[in-house]
Amino acid sequence: MINPVEFPFLMSAVSFLVLWTSSRAGCRYQKRIAGIREDFGIVLTATLTLLGLIVGFTFSMAVSRYDQRKLYEEEEANAIGTEYLRTELLSPSDSERLRRLLREYLDQRILFYQTRNKERLRQIDAATVQLQSRLWASLNNPSRAEPTPMTALVASGMNDVLNSQGYTHAAWRNRIPFEAWVLMGVIAICGNFMVGVYLRSVRTNTVLLMILPAIVSLSFLLIADIDSPRGGLIHIKPENLMSVAQSMRS
pTM here? Predict the structure, then answer.
């Protein structure tokens, strides 16, 4: 099933058309509020105020999730870089094997952030799971053969590496609830419909009918872009992971 939020620009264009149509539809009922126009204006103001609060609250949700994804990218880079240094505590052969696997694992983690193709992403996830198993298996043998505080420290660091990947994936799946989008959309449609009802003349206020739909649809665009890890233009760049990869190869 295609999630429209994954395509912020398309969703914004569709939102504009729907909201503008709602405003035009409301113009047909202008004469029905002639006797209650002042009271209707109070209800319209309250509706638009509520819409502004919902949009602001949803934007805050999107930004907090974006910041969380950035934070986990940094923590994942720190965990991998620390574990790479801790491998020096093992024997030279074990250390070299783990370091090679960590470099391969880091490459897959960087690709995870850079890839947008879903089929390619499934391949990356499969390769990541295999590398995790190989990393743990490569550390399991020396830990059993020499159960020293040094090997325990390396095992603890490997646990942090594997856990950080799980936290990252959980953060990427933590999106704005669909119910929040529905609520925001319904209030936006009602608000635009009421604006169309409230305007006195359709012919002289054609441009005015487009202002609110444009503003709301642009707000939807920004919120969806920030909330979508792979869609749109705003993405988490694996700068910390790439920095660690560069230090490993220097």
Answer: 0.87
